[in-house]
Design goal:
Helices cover about 40% and strands about 20% of the residues. The radius of gyration is 17 Å and the shape is globular. By secondary structure, the chain is of the alpha/beta class. Strands 1-2-4-3-5-6-7-8 form an eight-stranded mixed beta sheet, with helices on both faces. It has one domain: Alpha/Beta hydrolase fold, catalytic domain (Rossmann fold), CATH 3.40.50.1820.
């Protein structure tokens, strides 16, 4: 993972955004592009994408409240909390307008943010995005695997959580497991995870789902990426999402699960760059 970032000029620092000491990685110059990870995740989920994307963009990867090495949370976090945090992060970094690329929860937040703040958003890449489905068995699987890994961050439990995301379990490297174990073993993280997972509660999730009106309000160009083996739901969910946005296209990446940016990084990078640059070399 970090070998993929070797030789790349980057910075990792903490930025105070309201009450949250927020971990932020930056690399590259030019038009901003923000990378947004999934539930219980961390910025290393984009380790294989930061370098190629930073050749064309000022890449910003960050960790949400309660996630990664950002401040733990002692209260439930819902979508308005994530949207407000992202808005505050832009102010702290001096970003007036940016492109967004969000995976899973990151796609959910990106959708909500783009609908609420269209003046601050350019293009949007929605990578196996959440926010439109509420499948009980999927929600329970995410909750059980995630909380078990946070409560008892053994190699086996961390690996089981990560393998659920992948089409090919061998995509889960020892390095990825070790990085996530270090995060989940931090004092207080297990409680933070309980509050993060509130979005897997049917009642709470229902009031946070992306509405058709919000999809229609994402007026900038959007790319919805699904995969052949996504455990969160069928490709039809992504197709429906794209159809409800004014200027969206839909693509499927084969031989990948919920992390196409990891399992099929070359394909994802090429697709994202073609979309974000308009095919310009």
């Amino acid at each position: 993972m970090w070998s993929a970032l070797a030789g790349l000029e980057l910075s990792i620092r903490y930025v105070q955004v309201g009450e949250w000491r927020t971990r932020v990685l930056e690399a590259g110059e030019g038009e901003p592009l923000v990378l947004m990870h999934g539930t219980g995740g961390h910025l290393e989920a984009y380790a294989h994408n930061i370098g190629p994307l930073a050749e064309r963009f000022r890449v910003i990867a960050y960790e949400y409240p309660g996630h990664g090495h950002t401040t733990h949370t002692t209260r439930d976090l819902e979508l308005p909390d994530y949207v407000a945090h992202l808005d505050g992060l832009f102010d702290a970094l001096g970003v007036d307008r940016t492109n967004l690329s969000g995976e899973s929860l990151g796609g959910w937040v990106a959708l909500k943010y783009a609908a609420a703040h269209p003046e601050r958003v350019g293009k949007v890449v929605l990578n196996t995005p959440g926010g439109t489905m509420a499948t009980p068995e999927v929600m329970e699987r995410i909750r059980s695997l995630s909380q078990a890994a946070a409560d008892d961050p053994t190699e086996e439990r961390i690996r089981a959580r990560l393998e659920w995301l992948m089409a090919d379990p061998s995509s889960v490297t020892d390095e990825l497991v070790d990085i996530r174990r270090a995060i989940y073993a931090r004092p207080g993280f297990a409680e933070s995870m309980r509050h993060i997972l509130c979005l897997q509660d049917p009642v709470i999730r229902a009031r946070n789902l992306v509405t058709d009106a919000e999809l229609a309000a994402v007026t900038g160009p959007a790319l919805v990426v699904w995969t052949s083996d996504d455990p969160s739901g069928p490709a039809a969910a992504g197709m429906s999402m794209a159809a409800k946005m004014p200027d969206a296209r839909f693509e499927v990446i084969k031989d990948a699960g919920h992390w196409p940016q990891w399992e099929q990084s070359e394909t994802f990078n090429a697709l994202a760059l073609e979309f974000l640059t308009g095919g310009k070399p």
